[in-house]
Design goal:
By secondary structure, the chain is mainly alpha-helical. The chain has helices at residues 6-24, 29-45, 51-71, 78-100, 102-111, 128-144, 152-160, 173-180, 190-223, 230-261, 279-285, 288-299, 309-327, 331-354, 359-378, 382-394, 402-408, 414-423, 428-448, 453-458, 464-479. Helix 1 packs antiparallel against helix 2 (29-45), helix 4 packs antiparallel against helix 6 and helix 10 (230-261) packs across helix 16 (382-394).
Length: 492
């Protein structure tokens, strides 16, 4: 059961919200949190790999909680606390490596001439990359400030909280747990309830109406690279750039919308990343919680920008290599991270000059760079990525691939195509091209030129027009639920 599903939207979510507020409004705050924890456990147990994954999550959470609560107390000697903190971080990283990177390590050993072996993790809990980083942050923060402690109920709820457990964002205990216990949040806010449903609906729309439609085009394009011309390759690459944004930010909007219905605020993970005028700005706007984690728990402890320019650039490069590896245990993910690391360094070096250039030119260069880098992220391996880039630059300016266009027309436009086929068969191909280019253009507008989600929510007012738009988008999205694709970032 995932967030965009009939069972979640029409059964799980309303039942959970009703039970939570039924308990909380009677001043039974602990019971309200217990409702959310129970719902989160049930939700997680219904995901693959089921009970095994839930057991791994609870064991990991229990170990981290014991270390933070007892071994990191302020009364302990500093060297004991530091050893306990390092132990907790090492255990978390070891679990992440065991669950996600064994096959990659095996490939590296074999490619380096080492012995061949086969070893597979017993269980790979869904969302392990997200809850592992949250727990590392919790252990480190507990070491830095040992006076802050949380109840086991609060911590288990924080780690397993169902809106964010599968695809993040990477929240911190210091920003979530106090909200669970804030009396001011224990009364229904109808403004937040309306805003939450609005944001939830926009998240559904991003995922189902844009990301999944673009995804079909991307999947077939990457499966038929030799048949693509330059225009086809350009559209496939651009489609993935838009798909991954609407897919990932759509999930975050779903999660934030649910939290608003519970009168909670989830940290923002996106702030118009495709509005960026430099790579540095892009990473302040894209996957904000991951950038924050690497900055606070890796970049700054490594020295940050305090040890000269060369060391700063090396730190940046290392952070992006780790970021690439975090996204996937494969060489092409590492290359994607390396590309962005180099891009970040260049962005910092040329900033005194680039800021004097026209904004339009800076946006084009940044957006083009991000598009080309995404090719390594999307491709199955480095060879496929290079093949796609080769087609982009050498495929020739031939007409769009008619088979590709025909297969990928969204269901909502099939009637239009049928009418064109009946009225003017010779125009069917051109109408298909127009539909696809119009869809990509609309997605590009919403991603790069319209208001950001933060701006939309800050300026939210429940008007008749807003209600009508929300209801229409919700109904349209629900009708598309039968063909929902898995979230891209659920695999990370």
């Amino acid at each position: 059961m995932y967030l965009p599903s009939y069972s979640f939207i029409f059964i799980f979510l309303p039942v959970t919200v009703i039970l939570y507020w039924a308990a909380t409004l009677r001043d039974k705050y602990t019971l309200g949190k217990a409702v959310l924890l129970t719902a989160s456990i049930v939700f997680y147990a219904m995901l693959s790999p089921g009970i095994k994954g839930l057991a791994a999550l609870m064991i990991s959470a229990g170990v981290n909680y014991l270390i933070a609560t007892f071994a990191l107390k302020g009364s302990r000697p500093r060297h004991v606390r530091k050893a306990a903190m390092i132990t907790g971080v090492v255990l978390d990283i070891a679990m992440l490596v065991y669950c996600r990177y064994l096959s990659y390590i095996q490939q590296l050993i074999e490619s380096g001439g080492g012995p061949s072996f086969s070893f597979e993790a017993i269980v790979v809990p869904v969302g392990i990359s997200y809850f592992t980083f949250s727990q590392i942050a919790y252990v480190v923060d507990s070491y830095r400030d040992p006076d802050v402690t949380y109840s086991i109920l609060d911590y288990l709820l924080f780690i397993s909280f169902f809106p964010k457990i599968t695809v993040g964002p990477i929240a911190l205990t210091s920003e979530m747990i106090p909200q669970f216990n804030d009396p001011a949040r224990k009364r229904i806010s109808y403004d937040n309830m309306a805003k939450g449903f609005y944001r939830f609906t926009l998240g559904l729309s991003k995922k189902l109406l844009l990301a999944d439609s673009l995804g079909k085009f991307v999947d077939i394009g990457y499966a038929n690279i030799p048949n693509l011309g330059t225009p086809d390759s350009l559209l496939v690459i651009l489609s993935y750039t838009l798909q991954i944004y609407f897919d990932f930010s759509g999930y975050c909007d779903l999660a934030s919308g649910i939290c608003l219905m519970l009168n909670l605020d989830l940290c923002e993970n996106f702030d118009g990343p495709y509005h960026s005028l430099s790579i540095t700005e892009f990473w302040k706007r894209w996957h904000i919680s991951l950038t924050r984690f690497f900055r606070n728990y890796l970049y700054i402890p490594m020295g940050g920008n305090r040890k000269g320019k060369i060391r700063t650039y090396l730190n940046n490069l290392f952070i992006f290599l780790v970021s690439g590896l975090w996204h996937g245990a494969a060489t092409h993910f590492v290359l994607w991270g390396l590309i962005h690391g180099v891009g970040m360094i260049i962005s910092k070096v040329v900033t005194p000059v680039s800021t004097k250039l026209p904004k339009a030119l800076r946006w084009i260069v940044t957006f083009a760079f991000v598009n080309l880098a995404w090719v390594f992220f999307r491709a199955d391996d480095t060879v496929v990525a290079l093949d796609m880039l080769k087609q982009l630059f050498t495929g020739g300016f031939i007409p769009l691939n008619s088979s590709l266009i025909a297969v990928c027309i969204p269901a909502e436009f099939q009637l239009v195509q049928w009418l064109v086929l009946k009225a003017a068969p010779d125009l069917t191909f051109y109408s298909g091209c127009f539909i696809w280019i119009a869809l990509i253009a609309a997605a590009l507008y919403f991603a790069a030129f319209s208001k950001t989600m933060r701006q939309r929510c800050d300026g939210f007012k429940a008007s008749g027009r807003m209600v009508a738009v929300t209801v229409i988008l919700f109904a349209w999205s629900v009708l598309s639920l039968s063909e929902v694709a898995e979230f891209i970032y659920v695999n990370f």
